[in-house]
Design brief:
Oligomer: single chain
Largest sheet: none
Mean pLDDT: 81
Structural class: mainly alpha
Strand content: under 5%
Order of helices and strands: HHHHHHHH
Helix content: over 70%
Length: about 180
């Protein structure tokens, strides 16, 4: 097989992989959620998606404020409806947001793999596994706080108080686990 035949073969394989990608993705998601790690990845994907959506809402809130709307006229529905206009006005940059989303998912996957391997080494040494649990708690908490920060920026008053509560509770949780 020469180089040209190899390229044609690779192209055919890539084309076959791309056929029915929606169905393949759905089947993969169902199979992946059958495991603990797959379920966690699905939960992280959902958290990152909600974080992205709330970031858009916060940017739309700013767009609507800059357009002359008063805070009394603004609510979450107005911000959601404003998303296309905020894109057009440049308040939302889909390229940066898309890379941020993909980067987070990749990072979360890598950190999970790292934590699983550390826990396996710790288990082999006869100790209890805690790294994966701590990584997942930290990542989920980080996303939750980011979502609350975005909602606070979008004018949701309760988000600020809830954010302070979550930060306080997480401090207690991490301090408790630090001593173990």
């Amino acid at each position: 097989m020469d180089f040209k035949e190899l390229l044609v073969s690779i192209q055919k394989s890539a084309s076959t992989l791309a056929d029915g990608w929606i169905a393949k993705t759905a089947i993969s998601a169902v199979l992946a959620t059958g495991s603990v790690h797959g379920s966690a990845l699905g939960a992280f994907v959902m958290l990152v998606f909600v974080d992205l959506l709330t970031r858009w809402i916060a940017r739309c809130y700013k767009h609507l404020q800059d357009s002359g709307k008063s805070d009394e006229q603004l609510n979450l529905v107005c911000c959601l409806v404003d998303i296309p206009e905020a894109f057009k006005a440049g308040y939302i940059n889909s390229s940066a947001m898309k890379h941020r989303f993909a980067g987070k998912i990749l990072l979360y996957g890598l950190l999970t793999i790292l934590a699983v391997n550390v826990d396996n080494m710790v288990l082999a040494a006869g100790e209890s596994q805690v790294m994966l649990r701590m990584v997942w708690i930290y990542l989920a908490a980080t996303e939750a706080m980011s979502i609350l920060e975005n909602l606070r920026e979008a004018g949701v008053e309760q988000a600020g108080d809830l954010l302070q509560f979550v930060k306080g509770r997480l401090g207690v949780l991490f301090d408790r686990n630090k001593s173990k």
